[in-house]
UniProtKB/TrEMBL annotation:
Organism (species): Candidatus Methylospira mobilis
Pfam families: Cytochrome_CBB3
GO MF, any single term: heme binding
Post-translational modification: Binds 1 heme c group covalently per subunit.
Binding residues for heme c: 81, 84-85
Name this polypeptide is given: Cytochrome c(L), periplasmic
Residues in the signal sequence: 1-24
Amino acid sequence: MNKKPLVIAALTLAIAVPALETWAEVTFRNAVTGEVLDFSFAKAGGDSEAFKKFKETGKNPYNGNKEIAEGKGHSLYLSACSGCHGHEAEGKIGPGLADDYWTYPRATMDVGLFEILFGGAQGSMGPQYGNLNTDEMLQVMAWLRSVYKGDPAKADWLK
């Protein structure tokens, strides 16, 4: 039996499969229902290069950007989130967001935190797609990640 075609096919797959993964976008789901999120409901203006990259990689490109986090990210957080989560993400009506306890374990990843912001959660946490555009959500997330006081080993977004 000639094994050369099998070897060529195996090598082709070994090269092609990782290449396909770089073209695929992350699937974002509602934190409560599991349904795929529909970005057509999003507030206009959020289709930035950063958001496009986030949809491909699932990693927030603004993480670690002190200028974004402490500037617009914090300002947006104060206007959209602090009423329930406190001015420093310490928690009030809603849970604290700066520690390593997460009501939704997927929030340890950027994709999961975005899913909660965009689509809402149980209780009084409604979807934020009407208040913040998708790029602004990434900026708020960058601020939240910058004030994290929990165990770095539990912070999947750092990996």
